[in-house]
Amino acid sequence: MALANASSERWKWRQPSVIPGFGLTLGFTLFYLSAIVLIPLAGLGIRSASMGWGAFWSLVTDERLIAALRVSFSTSLFAALVNVVFGVLVAWVLVRYRFPGRRIIDAAVDLPFALPTAVAGIALTAIYAPRGIIGQYFQPLGIKIAYTPIGIVIALIFVSLPFVVRTVQPVMEEINREVEEAAATLGASRFQTVFRVILPGLAPAILTGFALAFGRSFGEYGSVIFIAGNLPYKSEIAPLLIFMRLEEFNYPAATAIGAIMLVIAFSVLLSINLIQAWSRRRFGYGS
Amino acid sequence: MELRVANVRKEFERFPALNDVSLDIRSGELIALLGPSGSGKTTLLRLIAGLERPSAGSIFFGDEDASHKSVQDRNIGFVFQHYALFRHMTVLDNITFGLRIRKSSRRPEKAEIRRRALELLDLVQLSGLEKRYPTQLSGGQRQRVALARAMAVEPNVLLLDEPFGALDAQVRKELRRWLRDIHDRTGHTTVFVTHDQEEALELADRVVVMSKGNIEQVGTADEIYDKPVSPFVFGFIGQSSHLKVRIENGEVWFHDRVIGIKASDLPDGPATLYFRPHDIELTDGCSGCIAGLVTVSRRIAGTWHTEVDVGAGHEKIEVSLNADQSAALKGGRIAFRPRHYRIFPTN
Ligand SMILES: Nc1ncnc2c1ncn2[C@@H]1O[C@H](COP(=O)(O)OP(=O)(O)OP(=O)(O)O)[C@@H](O)[C@H]1O
Ligand SMILES: [Mg+2]
């Protein structure tokens, strides 16, 4: 819960602390962030600015790009929402129950982190293709999974699951069983305990997990292109357009699309962070 | 409400945490469960609450067998050692939670809920803090919120598991007095767990002493201290010293001499003599006494804690002397007789 643990205090340069080295660590953090994140991002801005307003505008209003952005955004959002539900469920099972094979499942959650995304993409395509192990059952129903946005969503669910599980799990572990028992002694049913006590307590962590899952999905490329089918206006994602521009050596266009995606991702993440800051102030978490 | 625990047994995966425990709790009583760690106090309290199911036996609320009722239906108030407040709710929301979640047919009006909560806040002396979140309160304040929350549902019985265990000594003392005060005002039947005997003896109408899953004794503070029924209770409550003795024809013998104590109602054979280290009289000479050599004497404030080497086996025994008694000792020799004592046959 890195995002949620930031101090809820109003902005202050320096808080009294037993741990020395504020100046050093802040300096290092700024340097590190600049070198790793900010400078490349600035390069992105400068590069795309070099193409001039007119070209930029015609690129931005390109129907195909808008369609691709819409596909990227909606599938990422959908995958993140699905993972919020099932990721929380997985975390719950892992935290609350002791059963044979629990450690294996626990380890398996991290697989999407470790697996090269292209491998995941190919494997998922094989399974969900019209003649694949699962795809064959949907074929007669007239539902196509691979080569449609549904396939994209499935690939994104796969790669972003660990983000939700791993952010929610530690917070869930901290919830005292006594809190649930307290709710029960006050007359709360299982249902009321879950929905009025446990989940609201987990909300900040769930929101963080959602943000991470969305961010990861929005920029995902490797696992998606195989299963997506990449039909323009239908199942073409924005990162693929970037790749195509790169292959044409049209770097300014590629960076411009990158910059647009960056703005979208940043606004989503920022608004989630603002919600969290607000809830922290309201609920006094993390202090 | 009266409570009756009837022949309750509880095993955790074959480990017996409670063996055949029976206990009657009177309506309006403040009762303490006291015992060393692992003696089953929490288990008994949780069984009464319905947070655990007994392996055997029943628990009655009044005349009604509540053994198969769920926690939710027992209408109890439970206060946990670590408060267990809902951290995303304000103090007011915490206190009103139990009322707000009720079905609309049993739920009081909004205004009434609020009125009741504010009244409780006043009772626990936290007026004005209703908008705070639990993280913005001190430990003692949190525990008082937890108590108010438990009382808000007007429970049949209040159950507290080491409510002051996580607080420092000063706050504990304060809250102790305050809990007694609240109990006297509200009259809830209350059971609380503690392993602090001072807390139990000072606060409770009756004390239940537990050991290894059994109830050793139930009684008022005086009864427990003055008439302990078992060696365990004698040793557990207050200071105690003991000595292995032998009973012959109603006389208590220590090695080859009588120690001036009659035990006419006890059978012949080995036994253990228990007494309070300070509750002794020094004797001149020794026709019926315990005699020995002082090996160590440490002074703590007005009391001399004195270790005496008695008898041929060099048994060590501790007595506490006051200034006069200590001054009266000659040449490291001491002869004394306990004033009050208990003798338990060894079997
Ligand atoms: N859920 C459980 N599973 C297994 N054993 C348990 C469980 N709860 C309690 N026990 C065991 O039952 C015994 C009694 O435990 P209990 O918690 O009632 O003790 P206690 O008197 O409250 O001790 P303390 O003063 O340390 O809180 C202990 O030996 C404990 O190990
Ligand atoms: Mg306990």
From TrEMBL, chain A:
Q: What is its main location?
A: membrane
| Superkingdom to which the source organism belongs | Bacteria
What subcellular locations does the record give?
A: Cell membrane
Q: Name one GO cellular component term.
A: plasma membrane
Write out the entry's keywords from A to Z: Membrane, Sulfate transport, Transmembrane, Transmembrane helix, Transport
An example of a GO molecular function for this protein is:
ABC-type sulfate transporter activity
Residues covered by the ABC transmembrane type-1 domain? 69-272
User: What does the record say about its membrane topology?
Assistant: Multi-pass membrane protein
The record's Pfam families line, in alphabetical order, gives: BPD_transp_1 (PF00528)
Where does the chain cross the membrane?
Answer: 21-46, 66-95, 107-129, 141-165, 194-214, 253-275
The UniProt entry, under InterPro entries, shows:
CysT_permease, MetI-like, MetI-like_sf, Sulph_transpt2
Q: Any idea what job this protein has?
A: Part of the ABC transporter complex CysAWTP (TC 3.A.1.6.1) involved in sulfate/thiosulfate import. Probably responsible for the translocation of the substrate across the membrane. Part of the ABC transporter complex (TC 3.A.1.6.1) involved in sulfate/thiosulfate import.
For this chain, the family text in UniProt reads: Belongs to the binding-protein-dependent transport system permease family. CysTW subfamily.
How the protein assembles, per its UniProt entry?
A: The complex is composed of two ATP-binding proteins (CysA), two transmembrane proteins (CysT and CysW) and a solute-binding protein (CysP).
Protein name per its UniProtKB record = Sulfate transport system permease protein CysT
Q: Which organism is it from?
A: Allorhizobium borbori
From TrEMBL, chain B:
Q: Which Gene3D superfamilies match?
A: P-loop containing nucleotide triphosphate hydrolases
Does the UniProt entry include the keyword Transport?
yes
Residues in domain ABC transporter?
3-237
For this UniProt entry, the molecular function terms from Gene Ontology, in alphabetical order, are: ABC-type sulfate transporter activity; ATP binding; ATP hydrolysis activity
The source's superkingdom equals Bacteria
Does the keyword section mention Nucleotide-binding?
Answer: yes
Q: Which InterPro entries match?
A: AAA+_ATPase, ABC_SmlMolc_Importer, ABC_transporter-like_ATP-bd, ABC_transporter-like_CS, Mo/tungstate-bd_C_term_dom, P-loop_NTPase, Sulph_transpt1
Q: Name one Pfam family in it.
A: ABC_tran
User: Which biological process terms from the Gene Ontology are attached to this UniProt entry?
Assistant: quaternary ammonium group transport
Annotated keywords: ATP-binding, Nucleotide-binding, Sulfate transport, Translocase, Transport
Q: What are the annotated GO cellular component locations?
A: ATP-binding cassette (ABC) transporter complex
Q: Which NCBIfam families does the protein's record reference?
A: 3a0106s01 (TIGR00968)
**Family to which the UniProt record says this protein belongs:** Belongs to the ABC transporter superfamily.
Q: What is this protein called?
A: Sulfate transport system ATP-binding protein
Q: Which organism is it from?
A: Allorhizobium borbori
